[in-house]
Amino acid sequence: MKHALALVSAVLLAAGGALAVLATANAAPCPSGSFCVWRDVNFTDPEGKVFASSGDDEWWESWIADEDSSWANHGISGPGIKDHVIVYAEAVQWPSTGGDRTICLAPGQEVAHNANANDRGDAHVWAMQC
Hints:
This protein is an alpha+beta fold.
């Protein structure tokens, strides 16, 4: 009986470990405190690149500008902290306000693909809400 119980416990622990690995494998690979962008859907890039930023970026680098296809907001939340991310279709430089919003992500939100926002982002800012 003790042997059977030990065997069942071992199987359940192994299954739980496998489930934990699967859950982690599906999460977007983005550092804590950052907003991340990938050129391809499902948090991938043909060159393995990821655009990661912990602050506002009012003019994205040329390799990611108008090439964005998936996004993740792993920012830090708390009272009075700007934790939402708004992506704009144009650079945010005076007198420009960034033009159209392409997508806005709440804290912890990951978007593997959005047809309306795809290949339109040029800048992003952190905000209190969408």
